[in-house]
Amino acid sequence: MIRIDIATLFPDMCEAVLSQSIVGRGRAAGYIDIRCHNIRDYAGNKHNRVDDKPYGGGTGMVMQAQPIYDCISAVKSDIGKEARVIYMSPQGRVLTQDMVKELAAEKNLIILCGHYEGVDQRVLDELCAEEISVGDYVLTGGELPALILTDAVARLQQGVLPNSDAYSIESHYSGLLEHPQYTRPEVWHGREVPQVLLTGAHDSVAKWQEEAALEVTRKKRPDMLYDRRVGGEPLARYMKVSVYNDCREYDIVRYMKMIMHRRVLTNREQKLLKRMLPVLETLPAPPEDIPKGAEVWLVSKNASRHIELYAPLFDMLREHGISYSVNCTDKPGGSVIYEDEYYCVFADSEIN
User: Fold this and answer.
1) Which has the closest alpha carbon to 26: 163, 183, 155, 195?
2) Across residues 182-203, what is the average pLDDT?
3) Closest among 115, 146, 142, 138 to 23, alpha carbons compared
C-alpha cells in the first residue's frame, strides 16, 4: 500500500476533496494511506507565519525554508525511511500518465504545495525535491495540482477501483481512446450478441476492442498515435484537417483564407467568417508559397496543440453543416519540400 503525505497551508481543503468519492472510499477501506500536514504547525513563531520577502527582491512573498523543512523532516521521521519528495510547480515536468504509473509504484510520496510566489529554493535543494506541473498555466497554490496528482496515483492502487480493467484500457493508460460503443463487446449497434459467440473468444474480443478504439483515436486524437509504434516505427507521423467545398478538398486554414478573399459571400459564409476570424488568428499558418498540387500535412508530434486550437473551428463547421475530416498517415506521397515545427509539405518530383 502506498502512503502519500501532503504538506500544505490548507489541509482542510485537501481533506475535503480526498475524503469523498472513490478516493475517500479507498482510504476508508485501507487501500491507500493519505495524510495532510499543516506547514503552519512548524512555523515556530507566535503568529504561525510562514512567508517572508524574497532576499533577491521583487514583488510578493515566498514560503520560508524552515517550516517546510521541519514539516517534511517530521513526516520522514514518522515514515522511518526515505521518501520521494515532489514539489508542485509550473516550472516542473508536465504530468503524464506514464509518470503517474511510475509514481504509483512507489511506497511513499511526499507532496509539497507551494503558495504566494513560491518557496525558498534552498529547501527544495536540501530536500532534493523534483518539480512536477499539471499544465502550462499558473494557479494560486499547489493544492489543486497536488489533489490531481494524488487522485491519479490513488486510482491505480489495488482495491481502489473494482479491477485493473477500470484503468488499464483507458486512453492515456494504453494509448488508445475508448468509445461507448466499444466498452460492451456483447452489444453491437444496439443488438445483443449471442453469448455463445463470446464464450472462449476473449482474445478476439480484446483485439477487436483495441482495433475499434484505435480507429476512434485516429479520428479524435491522432497526436496520440505518434507514440504508438508498430515494428519500432510511429503509426502516424502526419495528419491533415480538410474541408470539402464545391467538390474540392482544402486545408482548413486555406479554406478560411479563400473565404476571406472573396468579394461576394453567402449569408452562411459571412456568419462563419465573423465567428471564425478570432480563432483563425491563433492558428499557426502553413507556408504561403506552396506549389499547386502540393499537399500540406501537420506534424503529428505537435498535433495535440493543433487539435486543441481547431476544436472551436470543428464545432462551428458542424453547426454550419460544412463537412471536414482528420486524416492520418505515416508516409504521404511525394517528397518533402518544406518542413517546420508544425507543417510538412509534400510534392511530386515533377512540381517545381
Assistant:
1) 155
2) 49
3) 146
**252 burial via Cβ count (<10 Å: 0-12, 13-18, 19+):** buried
Q: Which of 107-116, 130-139, 165-174, 335-344 has the lowest mean pLDDT?
A: 165-174
- Pull the grid cell for residue 220: 479524435
Number of H helices, E strands in the chain: 13, 17
Query: Which helix (H) or strand (E) segment is 338 a member of?
Result: strand 335-339
Over range 233-254, report the average pLDDT.
Answer: 71
Counting Cα atoms < 13 Å in the Cβ hemisphere of 351 gives 16
SS3 state of residue 23: helix
Q: What is the pLDDT of residue 303?
A: 56
Residue 335 has pLDDT above 70, yes or no: yes
CA 59: distance to chain centroid?
Answer: 32
Please tell me what DSSP assigns to residue 169.
T
Pairing of strands 233-234, 295-299: unpaired
| 7: β partners | 37, 112
Domains and CATH numbers, the chain: 3-154 (3.40.1280.10), 175-220 (1.10.1270.20), 234-347 (no CATH)
How does DSSP assign 216-253, residue by residue? HHHHH-GGGGGG-EETTEES-SEEEEEEEETTEEEEHH
Q: What Rg, from alpha-carbon coordinates, does the chain have? A: 26
- pLDDT tens profile 256-299: 667 666 666 677 667 767 777 776 677 667 777 777 778 878 77
Q: Is residue 284 within 8 Å of residue 342, measured between CB atoms?
A: yes
Amino acid of residue 174: S
Evaluate whether 141 touches 10 at the Cβ level (below 8 Å): yes
Q: Looking at the chain, which runs of residues are DSSP E strands?
A: 3-8, 33-38, 51-52, 62-63, 84-94, 108-113, 130-133, 187-188, 191-192, 229-230, 233-234, 238-245, 248-251, 295-299, 324-329, 335-339, 343-347
- Is this prediction's pTM over 0.70? no
Between these two residues, 84 and 298, which has the higher pLDDT value?
84
Q: How many CB atoms lie within 10 A of CB 142?
A: 29
